[in-house]
Amino acid sequence: MATIQINVNGESREISDIDPTTPLLWALRDHLGMVGTKFGCGKGLCGACTVHLNGTAIRSCSTPVSAVNGLNVTTIEGLAHDEDHLHPLQEAWMEHDVPQCGYCQAGQMMNAASLLATNPKPSDSDIDNAMAGNICRCGTYQRIRKAIHTAAGNGGAA
Amino acid sequence: MKNDIYSYDLIPDVDMPAEFANHQNRRAAREARGDAPFMPRRQFLKLSGIAGGGLVLAFMMAGRSQSEAAHHKTGGQKTFSPNAYIQIKPDGEIVIAAKNPEVGQGVKTFLPMIIAEELEVPWESVTVVQSEIDKDRFGPQSAGGSQSTPRNWTPLRQAGAVARTMLINAAAAEWGVSAGSLKADQGFIVNPKNGKKISYADLASKAATLDVPDAETVTFKERSEYKLLGKFIPGVDNPDLVTGKPLFGIDQTLPGMVYAVLVKCPSFYGKVKRANLEDVKNMPGVVDAFIVDGNSVDGELSPGVAIVAKSTYEAFLAEKALQVSWDKSEASNESWGDLKELALDLTSKPGPVAEETGDMQAAIDGADKVVDGFYTYPFLSHSNLEPQNCTAWFHGGKMEFWAPTQTPQAIAGAVSRILGIAEEDIIVNQVRGGGGFGRRLINDFACEAAAVAHKVDAPVKLMWSREADMAHDFYRVGGFHNMKGTIDKSGKLSGLQDRTLIFTNKGNGRPVRGGNIRAGNIQAPEIPNVRIEAHEIPLIVPCGWWRAPTSCSVAWVFQSFIHEMATAAGRDHLEFLLEQYGEPRWLGKQTSRDFNTERAINVTKAAAKKGNWGKKMKQGQGRGIAFYFSHLGYFAEVAEVTVDSSNNVKVDRVVVAADCGILLNKSGGENQVEGSVIDAISTMASQEITFEEGAVKEQNFDDFPLLRMPSQPKIEIEWLTTEHSPTGLGEPAFPPATAAITNAIFEATGKRIRTMPISKDGFRIV
Ligand code: FES
Ligand code: FES
User: Fold this and answer.
1) Which numbered ligand comes closest to the C-alpha of B105?
2) Which residues of B touch A135 (CB under 8 A)?
3) 3-state SS of B494-561?
4) Domains along chain B?
5) Percent of chain B surpassing pLDDT 90
6) How many whole angstroms separate alpha carbon A39 and alpha carbon B764?
């Protein structure tokens, strides 16, 4: 058992009495009560659990909480600046009505945010490649791609 | 040809709510009725501060509701609430209840849209809340068989129109004019003669004192007057979804909650002999571990070992330390390999004739050409991205659920049977489900949560790992079809025979869910001679309803085989397909469930046109077409593919022509169609559930892969405008997609795919 300190969405959070092998996913969900990050496969196969570690997308189901001790984690709850200023991806997701069940979408948006941070004007194939690790069981891929273009200011063009 | 086999009645396969219709949740209804009747209690607490409540009348379909008048005072003003669905508050807030479970099919948005349309209010002014579970006031509340739309179309329009009529009456009384001279217009009643207008908010108090008219007497808006239905309306939960709010079953958190798993025998229906419970109890974070006997009823409670822990991870870790000795004496010992062998053998020989029209033997004897083709498809898992889970809390003699289910009304009956808790002491709160596809029609996860919560003095969140989810699904049943077709001397399809087998549920002897194969599934009423021969094989492996049950698999067989026949006859597939429908007419009893060949012809022609049918393609490319009528929707699809020399298949474009009657929400509808096409490609690419000694072998998305973004085709949709009643869209776009694509692959390569998934024949979707 260990005590772990993480900066989650800009706030320092301490988790005491936690098994250090606990995946970050479950630390967020069960210990910190932040359930926006989702469990899909537990094996790095679906991307539902995607969060940012120091700004880069990682799979929180496959990252032990001990590995993020003292680091900056951003989750879907912290993607927006604040309630009145959503991230352009969140706006685009609503504009294109991307979600069906919506379960994968937190992971999709976190992954897309990481893509846009390094490639602000991605092409269709840039998007396809960057997003290939994120499964949408409902099949909202067309809309995800459109929404990423919109958020990137590509005007929907490929 | 007799018409009656073309009555596509929604057989129990699809019409599942009938199976569940008896169970209700009256207590939850009663509890909440005093205050804010259609809100789950948590929402109620949140809203009650501003709302001041409002007595709401029981909504009765036939409009027999009496005016008990909706009045609860808020500073002398009253909330107008003529039925369970609508509240109009004096401050102008309009609240509409969404009655059915949302699992991604968009129902939480489009059912309230129907009410808002007839109520004649701007959509922006509406707040949608999820209703409680109460059959008395909301009727069946389920999400399956694409039934939400057809079932609710009339009652929900009535709910809106009753309220609109009463607001008009209130304004008429206010102004001393006749109701007939007034009009409703986006939240106002206007008098066109003098231009006077008054808002619904200002009329709410007065309307609340009026008699509620008989729902059968109110008039609906003309379709040309619609302002909302058919528009692109984003989902009402989007703002919460994109910011990660706790909407889903898996997100529910209660004070003092513990986390549990129920470990079941890998072989279906195995029981626990003994387990190292003491070792497990000593694992970190474990609160308790015990054996659950289960009732071994299909779809209810499987026996297993419950592990209760302080966190999900600790429960999962403890599961790894668990050792169980299983009693498999009554468990499934079935293997997919053995079943395949048996099926091959049986379907190669004549079997019992299940249905026959005309004389198939005469067709064979007189044929110019006879074509044979053996088709097979595997079992499938639903793979909802949110694994099964359920939160339950046994408190004060009541069992309360937060259940991501498609059939919330069915939980009380099952749990009452298992635990002996009275149905009225069972409360079900609706939560969002991360994908349905038919998996959550069965409430095994809720039964499990109840069994654990019954023994634990705390709220329990029961979690399934992905591996558990894949190992204990209710699978899409696999199938085998030894097809024979005949072409007569004039080049027409003169006969069609399907030697198949029907898996029957070992428990009840009936065809497994989604496994009843009938001549009506062929959807080619002009074929004069048709014979279905079906062997029956009892099966223990649990089968369930999987997106467009039965249609999802047999459409591929029949729509591929018709293409084979067209090819054998040397005729154009489109023209040949249209010939199978015959004259435009409505077969059977001419209900929405009966095949309407005119609608079939129209969508097929529309898809062909938009899909550039007949236009030349490059080497290695192919174009295929297929049609299917299922779940009251008519869909034809044209697929274009490019196949390289290594059999890599790129699905370039899928064109969909749809007649679903009136389209309710363009956005939600298109999302469902796009998703169905993606799902079809996902399924046909490489998905297969296999089992050995009664246990499923595939475990996660590495050996049961789902389609990923780079493989998505371009999907284009054309909605045919028809006056037919609307149908649900969660299912009918799926069935024709697979055949359209395999037909296109044939056109590109000359290779006929008769085995699913296509990876079996060396093809790969890229
Ligand atoms: S849950 Fe982490 S990748 Fe699937
Ligand atoms: S929207 Fe359901 S999994 Fe993506």
Assistant:
1) 2
2) 385, 701, 706, 708
3) EEEEEEEEEEEECCCCCECCCCCCCHHHHCCCCCCEEEEEEEEEEECCCECCCCCCCHHHHHHHHHHH
4) 39-240 (3.30.365.10), 249-331+388-463 (3.30.365.10), 350-380+475-765 (3.30.365.10)
5) 86
6) 29
For residue B2, which of B355, B357, B354 has the smallest C-alpha distance? B357
Tell if the CB–CB gap between B313 and A23 is shorter than 8 Å: yes
CATH architecture of the domain with range A88-151: Orthogonal Bundle (1.10)
The topology under which CATH files domain A2-78 is: Ubiquitin-like (UB roll) (3.10.20)
Q: Do A101 and B432 touch (CB under 8 A)?
A: yes
| Three-state DSSP class for residue B457 | coil
Cβ atoms of residues B99 and B107 within 8 Å: no
Residue nearest to atom 3 of ligand 1 (CA): A44
Q: Which of A30, A65, A111 should be substituted to probe chain B, the one whose Cβ sees the most B Cβ atoms within 10 Å?
A: A30
Q: At what angle do helices B148-175 and B107-119 cross, to 10 degrees?
A: 30
Please give the helix or strand (H or E) that residue B482 lies within, else none: strand B479-487
Q: Nearest-CA neighbor of B59 among B142, B132, B144, B117?
A: B132
Tell me what pLDDT residue B143 has: 85
Q: Can you tell me the distance from the alpha carbon of A92 to that of A98, in angstroms, rounded to the nearest whole number?
A: 8
Mean pLDDT of A46-55: 97
- pLDDT tens per residue across span A53-101: 999 999 999 999 999 999 999 999 999 988 789 999 999 999 999 999 9
**The one-letter amino acid at B486:** T
Residue entry with tokens 């086999």: B5
Rounded to 5 degrees, φ, ψ at B695 are -125, 135
Structure confidence by residue, pLDDT tens digits, B70-95: 334 445 688 999 999 999 998 889 99
Task: Find where tokens 């079997």 sit.
Answer: B351
What value does the CA radius of gyration of chain A take, rounded to a whole number of Å? 15
